[in-house]
Design a protein that fits this description.
Layout lengths: L11 H6 L12 H4 L4 E10 L2 E7 L4 H13 L8 E9 L3 E5 L7 E6 H4 L3 H18 L30 H9 L2 H9 L4 H10 L12 H13 L9 H8 L2 H12 L14
Parallel strand pairs: 3-5
Antiparallel strand pairs: 1-2, 1-3, 4-5
Length: 270
């Protein structure tokens, strides 16, 4: 079994900025993007989904290895909203940072320990972080069932203000009942709450997925596109992914490239 690292979360931006005082963050400045999960060592500037050069720190083999991992499972077009890619020394496997209020620009940061881990573990974290970018973009409109249009939920904006017609909104509508959404307003990233949900609902692909809808989607997305076996009880989440052509195309392309990760193992809930 290959260990799976955890992601610190996608919405650090809104937690830092708070309220209506949004300013676009500098994708190449550690002080601007914040270093809440550790010290950033180096950052690539990313343009049109491609590395446009090192914009902070010194050349770093672990940064390069991590970028190659992400680039192996995504196309430049899929990475178009990425503005920078960083390596840091600190907590968690990685994190995704929203850089602007419109959720049109992002930074992905990978922990050095993740970068130095087994290639399948690194690829898992890259797929997971990419899911946060993928679901945040407002243009990422789900073509299936319509969901109600509502405003962002309060100042913290649990869904990154991505709009209620995107994948994550539809996902939340389908898999997260109202009482659990209300519970999130008090504890959005609480391991004890995740453990409770995992015990009571076998539909999650592991305990970390039960943290909140964003992590639920990201874990399920990573498992799907990397063809990682999931518990039979999580089939409805697999079906969600399988009903979307863009996500299926990613999975098939990754499989054809020999980059599936069948050796990864997810824990089960319920
Ligand atoms: Zn995450």
């Amino acid at each position: 079994m290959i260990a799976l690292a955890l992601c610190a979360g996608a919405w650090l931006y809104v937690l830092q900025a708070g309220g209506d005082h949004f300013t676009t963050l500098d994708p190449c400045d550690p002080q601007s993007v914040g270093e809440g999960y550790g010290t950033i060592a180096a950052i690539y500037n990313v343009e049109n989904g491609m590395v446009a050069g090192l914009c902070y720190g010194a050349p770093d083999d672990d940064l390069f290895r991590s970028w190659e991992s992400l680039a192996g499972i995504t196309t430049p077009n899929e990475r178009a909203s990425l503005r920078s890619f960083a390596i840091y020394d600190g907590e968690f496997g990685g994190y995704t940072q929203q850089l602007d209020r419109e959720a049109s620009q992002f930074m992905i940061a990978v922990n050095r320990s993740t970068a130095q881990s087994h290639s399948q573990s690194l690829r898992w974290v890259m797929a997971h972080e990419f899911a946060h970018v993928f679901t945040s973009h407002e243009s990422n409109v789900w073509s299936g069932e319509k969901v109600p249009t509502v405003d962002c939920l309060g100042d913290q904006n649990l869904y990154g203000c991505a709009g209620w017609n995107n994948y994550l909104a539809t996902w939340t509508y389908q898999f997260w009942p109202d009482p659990e959404i209300e519970a999130l307003e008090l504890a959005y990233r609480d391991p004890a709450e995740a453990a409770r949900r995992c015990r009571s609902d076998a539909g999650f692909v592991g305990e970390y997925a039960a943290t909140n809808p964003g992590e639920d989607f990201a874990q399920s997305f990573a498992a799907f596109i990397l063809s990682v076996p999931v518990p039979a009880s999580a089939q409805s989440r697999v079906n969600f992914m399988a009903s979307n052509q863009a996500i299926v195309q990613m999975r098939d392309r990754i499989h054809a490239a020999g980059l599936s990760s069948p050796d990864l193992q997810l824990s089960s809930c319920g």
